[in-house]
Amino acid sequence: MRAGEHGRLSNWRDTAGVTPEQARELAARLELRAKATDEVSARDAYLDLLAISAGERVLDVGCGSGAVTRAIARRVGESGRVVGFDASPALLNLAAQYAREAGLAGRIEWQTGDCHALPFGDATFDASLAATVLAHVPDPEPAIKDMVRVTRAGGRVGIFDFDGDCFLIAHPDRDVTRRVVAATCDHSAVNGQLVRELPGLLVSLGLEDVKVHAFMPLEREPGSFYANLAQRAGQTAAKVGAISEAEAKRWQEELNRTIDGGRFVGGRLHLFIWGRRGK
Predict the structure, then answer these.
(1) Rounded-to-integer distance, Cα 11 and Cα 220, Å
(2) Which member of 45, 129, 174, 221 has the lowest number of beta carbons within 10 Å of its beta carbon?
(3) Nearest to 105, CA basis, from 128, 124, 87, 81
(4) 266, β-bridge pairs
(5) Is 86:95 a contact under the CB 8 Å cutoff?
(6) Of 138, 169, 268, 269, which Cα lies nearest the Cα of 212?
(7) 189 contacts: CB under 8 Å, gap ≥ 6
């Protein structure tokens, strides 16, 4: 990896070789986020927009622990199927376990591989989705092009991802917080601004009726996904030299007081971009 390259501290950039222990930690983060009230509402809404229905065959690219895959499985019903696709065998093992515990194993197939070269035939799926994954993928355009390829004519392709510069953290130090957010955008994602490029990219790949919808999941509770993410963001900013060690110590102490005092609010802007493959 080149010095200064964006995403060099991303935990999600290359998960193919994560150990079972690392996968459990990553899956715990995903499952914590998936249970949050605003996340549940956003997931329900963008799956509605993608018009997932009973009997369909759907691809979930970069499925991780399978939280979105399970939500899709509930929608496609007994007569439908969803394929959870991910680079990490260790994460897929956990995803399969969670699906069994939810009583959904019979509706889901799990497959590992590289999203740049999806191992499926043309027009295999009624819909293809990538949720909070492509911002961490180097050179995502071939992966998106392949999502379009494996979707049938008239089928839908959707991408749900975050804007890294639109990370809301309630904190009294505005200057340091701005630097924390910028450092996290640049170093914890390969392209934290990918969502801004996606509408034009989907149009250029031939999708029709391309639309965009914004979501802003927020949390206030100690131990919540965004409280934990804010704490990790401060650590990231210190690692890359965006803030000094002294600034990092003060910032973390003030953040913890804000959280413990019930004054915290955190969240991140997400966009859902979707369209229909032409006939």
Answers:
(1) 24
(2) 174
(3) 81
(4) 169, 219
(5) yes
(6) 269
(7) 6, 7, 10, 135, 136, 162, 164
Question: Whole-angstrom Cα distance, residue 276 to residue 103?
Answer: 31
**CA 198 – CA 271 distance, rounded (Å):** 10
What is the C-alpha to C-alpha distance for residues 151 and 148, in angstroms, rounded to an integer?
Answer: 5
Angstrom distance (rounded) from CA 245 to CA 122: 52
One-character DSSP codes across 123-141: T-EEEEEEES-GGGSSS-H
* Measured CA angle at 275 (ends 104, 50), to 5 deg: 30
Would you state the structure tokens that stand for residue 106, as one six-digit string? 């019979």
Threshold 0.90, pTM exceeds: yes
Instruction: Give which of 165, 230, 151, 222 is closest to 193, Cα–Cα.
Output: 165
CA distances to 168, 191, 271 from 197, in Å: 21, 10, 11
Domains of the chain: 20-163+190-217+271-277 (3.40.50.150)
Name the E strands within the chain.
Answer: 57-61, 81-86, 108-112, 125-131, 151-169, 207-215, 218-219, 266-277
pLDDT tens, the chain, 279 aa long = 333 457 676 777 778 888 999 999 999 999 999 999 999 999 999 999 999 999 999 999 999 999 999 999 999 999 999 999 999 999 999 999 999 999 999 999 999 999 999 999 999 999 999 999 999 999 999 999 999 999 999 999 999 999 999 999 999 999 999 999 999 999 999 999 999 999 999 999 999 999 999 999 999 999 999 999 999 999 999 999 999 999 999 999 999 999 999 999 999 999 999 999 987
Structure token pair of residue 75 = 């929608």
Residue 61, C-beta contacts closer than 8 angstroms, at least 6 positions apart: 85, 115, 118, 128, 129, 130, 133, 143, 147
